[in-house]
Amino acid sequence: xxxxxxxxxxxxxxxxxxxxxxxxxxxxxxxxxxxxxxxxxxxxxxxxxxxxxxxxxxxxxxxxxxxxxxxxxxxxxxxxxxxxxxxxxxxxxxxxxxxxxxxxxxxxxxxxxxxxxxxxxxxxxxxxxxxxxxxxxxxxxxxxxxxxxxxxxxxxxxxxxxxxxxxxxxxxxxxxxxxxxxxxxxxxxxxxxxxxxxx
Length: 199
Description:
The chain is built from 9 helices and 5 strands; from the N terminus they run βββββααααααααα. The protein is an alpha+beta fold.
């Protein structure tokens, strides 16, 4: 699994980059909105990736930050009928914070405006992410991050990470609640929660 690429930005096209990492040119599909986030041609860059493998092809999808990659993974793993192309359209049509806000507020109209989506898919995204996955409350807490204690903010980040990895919100929350009080770093919490969940 390729989780990130670090190397020289060799080519930059709308929705596509070529990164020279160790003498190998990797083509990476990126959201249209975040193209400028990867730097200038000929400069060193780091791209977080999702390596998608299908029978006929392998594709690297690239993101400037963990938040965008987590949203992409939530869409393809947890919303019925949404594959990588539709998920990339969402991230190309809306910034990650705007998309999260639209899901939290149930703003189907805004999501439906994304090219190639439509009202039914937008409704399914809101329904399945809000109700079935339970990500709505975690995103609301994230938006209110400044008012959360550092401990609560770290736990919320771990909850979102576990949900994006495919765990149900309720089981992820139970695992976090079982963590010892001295576990305060979010990366330590994530590892400990994963150990509990994979038992």
